[in-house]
Fold each of these.
Amino acid sequence: MITALRFRRFDPGEAAALADFLAGEPWPFHAAETVQREDVLGRVAEGYYDDETYWIEIGGERAGIVRLFDLEDETPMFDLRISARHRGKGLGRAAVQWLTDRLFGEYPHVERIEGTTRQDNAAMRRVFGRCGYVKEAHYRRAWPDASGHRHDSVGYAIIRRDWQTGETTVPDFHDDQCP
């Protein structure tokens, strides 16, 4: 159980804190492993974090950030980042459970929520599974890293009906009956 966990809405006045947080360490399983402080400040000014972006705090300390986007769609997505020193403590699972409940609970038009990660991000893949998300896609060599190496990526989703019932509906991947 994580104590004193809080999701607090990001305020654009906290641009410097967000830039320091994101530029302060590498993000090994994200499209850009390193983030430049100036780029974050520019994105804040452009409204990139205006959808719904939340600090993940433990005891008042910033431990991560979650950004919910494409909120007008039936299938919103999210970006989740947990600082290195807070990884492996259940924050990812808590954040995905929180955002899933938030999106289905407060956005009646949302039918499904999607997330994508690299195939080798075992921790995030476990989080998806433990939170009721199902692997729906496997994209071969679709995720280049900073060195140019291409990784496979995998897509997960949860549908509203599964969230409501607690059941897991698995897609039929053996439907190659098409002529």
Amino acid sequence: MRATAAVAALAGFLALGALAAPAAQAATKPPALDLSFGKATVNGGKPVVVSTGSAKTTVKVTFTAKHGKNVDVFDGSVDMVVGLYRGTDVDNAARNLWSGGISCAEPSSTSLSCTTKITVPASKLSNADASTGWKLFLGGIAWNGQNPDKADDSKISTVEQQKAATATLQRASKLTVNAAPEPVKKNKTITVTGALTRANWDTDKYAGYTKQSVKLQFKKKGTSTYKTLKTVTTDSKGNLRTTTKATADGYFRYSFAGTSTTPAVSAAGDYVDVK
């Protein structure tokens, strides 16, 4: 396993649109970069769930690549860059997030199997970023003998893949439950309250998730499976409240199936002793 770190200049080139710079800028067209990207994954294909405030979520990215025998991503002559972006392309993204160091193994002399990590800070997100529309950018730059910190973008060679994979960012969710009174006589009515909240990236706080369908479930003592009793809808503040009959000792909980912007979540069961 060898490692390469994308230099800071790469982000600057991307911000300036250098990877899409027209060849007419160069008096002599730079040589083509013999590098191509293959299969890529973001977070193992699972949604990326982010909380609030100072919370940071680390996302693992994997990808493969093939290169010519004259391309070496380990000696500083060629660098790769990996990023997540939300938008039509990386140069016009509403939001983009770049990776740190990239570690690559060499299954063969002309192939690479690489991993990197992208940090997703809650403080940099807005609620609009909770979306299925995130894409993975993979790029490569050959410096062609130039100093990366002072490189002339008309003399570099580049390759890019704008949509190497897709990703979903979701606002973290929480769900609570309380069943009362307890203990309670058999077949008497109990009231089950709770609240469904989710991260609000605009305010850095959790707020009620309104008008959502949530299942009230019960697991009888000595069993391992929750059974759904009814569906309850959260109110204008994300609160839940309903009644049911206590027929046996066991655990009550609320369970939310999730949406495209918010992950599924279940409350820890609240035990009720039935006399």
